[in-house]
Amino acid sequence: MEAFTISVASDVLDDLRSRLTRTRFTTPSASGWEAGTDPDYLRSLVDYWANEFDWPAAEARLNSYPQFRDRGQHFVHVRRDATRPPVLLAHGWPSSFIEMLPLLELLDVDVVVPSLPGFLYSDLVDGPLTRAAIAETFHTLMTETLGYERYFAFGGDIGGAASGWLATMYPREVAGLHMIHGPFPADFDASPITPAEQAFLDAEAVYDESDEGYSSIMSTRPDTIAAALADSPAGLAAWIIDKYRSWSDCGGDLESRFDRDTLCTILTLYWVTGCIGTSFRQYLDYPHNAPRPMIPVPVAVTLSHEPGMHGFPRSIAERAAGDIRRYSAPGRGGHFLALEEPRLIADELTAFMRSIG
């Protein structure tokens, strides 16, 4: 394990600024955000990113957290209370470890925040990037690198799904699992689908028709879109912030949840590491995922308030997890819940961990 410091060379920043100032913007296809990222908003954000955003200050803030790399895995590790099990906080897409930093500040146990394999400063794993492969990487980090015998896992999206695999693969070491997206079972064969479950599944299918374009191309032609995004920071910004707006609980006002410095920090990290293409790998490799068994450890669910989770019934989670200890739908905070509502999640996660011991 080696200490790690984020350090972006001045020529990389100069090149980024030059590209931003020479951006060619598209003609709007519809009003506002109806056809994707609003070109007028993008123009404003790109101007801020190029001319006002203070990356050195952002870099210094990030480096105030103890960071490390081991076996190609980047992570933040904060020690607070060695007498209690630590917690691993796992982000999703298109996110990064900085999503978890506000939550980290509010917890009173040891905290580990890894970058997913292929994201930012973490290398890809050998072989397909499945949820189980991510779980193996995280378990190695927690037990072999850091020496913990027992730990909690928290996450959403990819990080939550990988944490679900952690719990099924290593139930002796995983003390409990906290998720913001209710877990799905491998199938619905155990009992007939209820009307509430069917209503949710139908609504999810309708929503996917309007939202799945991004995942379709990342699942089938990731290198095609990555070639454009790796060469154009404005294009990268458009691709990423579209999801921050549509998946967060912002009511259509992106900056009501994320200030521009936060957005530009996320975008700069993706740009300088050149990781957008490798962040797509788990989409391309998704067919390699096996059906996940029933989750055997204690589970807490704090349901995110985002379009894809509206109307999610607890009964679906109960098909996937046999020991749900806490379940709540607070009605605020979306796909990036730890960043949007860190106090809410800190209270829920702390109560859950203390109930387990």
UniProtKB/TrEMBL annotation:
UniProt cross-references to SUPFAM superfamilies, sorted A to Z: alpha/beta-Hydrolases
Annotated keywords: Aromatic hydrocarbons catabolism, Hydrolase
Ranges for domain Epoxide hydrolase N-terminal: 2-100
InterPro entries associated with the record: AB_hydrolase_fold (IPR029058), Epox_hydrolase-like (IPR000639), Epoxide_hydro_N (IPR010497), Epoxide_hydrolase (IPR016292)
Pfam families cross-referenced by the UniProt entry: EHN
Superkingdom of the organism of origin: Bacteria
Family assignment from sequence similarity: Belongs to the peptidase S33 family.
PANTHER family noted in UniProt: EPOXIDE HYDROLASE, EPOXIDE HYDROLASE 1-RELATED
Protein name as annotated: Pimeloyl-ACP methyl ester carboxylesterase
Provenance organism: Agromyces ramosus
The organism's taxonomic lineage, starting at the top: Bacteria, Bacillati, Actinomycetota, Actinomycetes, Micrococcales
